Here is the input.
Amino acid sequence: MRSQSHKMTVSIDQHSSHLEPLRMFFNQLDNEDTTIEKRSRQQRDEYQLKAINLTLEHVWKNNEFYRSMLEESGFKQPSIEHLEQLSSVPMLNKNVIRGDKTKLLCVDPKEIGQVHLTSGTTGKPIYTSYTLADQYIYDLLPKYPVLFPETVTDVGAVALPYEFALPGLGFQRLLQFSFGATVLSLGKGGYMAPVDKSLELMKEFQASVLVTTPSYAALLVEESVRFGIKLGQDIRLRRILLTGEGCSNTFRSRLEKEWGCEVSFFYGSTECGGIAVECKEHKGYHVMEGHVRVEIVDPVSGKTLEYNETGEIVVTTLLRDGMPMVRYRSGDIGYLQKSQCDCGITMDILHLRGRMESMLHLNGNDYSPFLLEHFLMEIPDISLWYHFIIDQGDLTIEAEPYRTSLSNEQLAAKIRKHMLDRLGIACKVEIKHALPRTFGKATRIFIR
Ligand SMILES: [Zn+2]
Here is the structure.
């Protein structure tokens, strides 16, 4: 009896699930020496319809909660005839699954190999459980060689949290199993990898790719100066992938300049995994349509919106056995665009506009915090650390000087004028000389 490798044997080598027909689809692509990135819209729609129907059948058979939701909304059988019909499938709200570890489970608990949790900053965490096959077979089936040009010669430094959240371990698997790359599991300043050691390791092993958050990429820039490590010389990255926090284009440009390499945004979540990623053109995120179906809905009415209409991002996972997400309301805002990208990828483009609850109400209008950051970061005399404080609809900006000869008063006046010109909003400015740094998620907005 091969008891030692029981889990591997059951869950991977001989695992069979509702996803097997999709494995055949991707094998076929491999045989034709093509990838899902460049298939026609119609071919990808056919794939997605098939994947959605396999998922609907799977949840109908194996999950009481999903089944009753479908039955209550009039489904007599778990299938749709065309993709537009997906809008008749009920949406899934975070609150329904928050703190409940089995509600969406569609397999025997002993099949589960890995549990991930959301950070739960706004209440109880959301648990997502994966089978080993989910993570080591199905998740790796779709290949996106234009979006991810990484290869065996790359050394990827993963500076994301490894505890419970998906991103750290997710990128670790992607780099190792999809590209055969070497991984430096840096985490974010934990006990085994303080910042100086992390930078030292990146230098020692000649890291070529860094995956981290915008604020940690900024922190590493400052610390490299302190520890005498020259970015672009001692550490020569080919690219940085940013995830976990939103970030504006100007913040990105400043990081590109400091690190001397391309910086791309990646959008994903612990619940849904990888959702979309930027190509080199940096004109929005290509949806990872092998993994997910993305829809945009009106956040109030729930009605599905058309291309170019802004609303809430709703995600259906296509390659999940353990705990599929069907029409999951992300709470993020954005819009979809048909791809006419110079990179040649035909997958839709997603434009992110931030989280619903973090929209800023100023002068009776709603503003995305990225837009404010975008304008603020145009001023080279301030650092990458700042706070927006909203009090009764008034904006106060706390900013920190950076390599500038301006006095505090001059700098404050410059920021006030710039924001008024760019945004049309009068704000107060306070110059601070030591805004706090963080190893966690950066908090930049305070609403009083
Ligand atoms: Zn592109």
User: Anything to note?
Assistant: DSSP finds twelve helices and 19 strands in the chain. Residues 1-11 have pLDDT under 50 and may be disordered. Residues 224 and 230 are 7 Å apart (CA to CA).
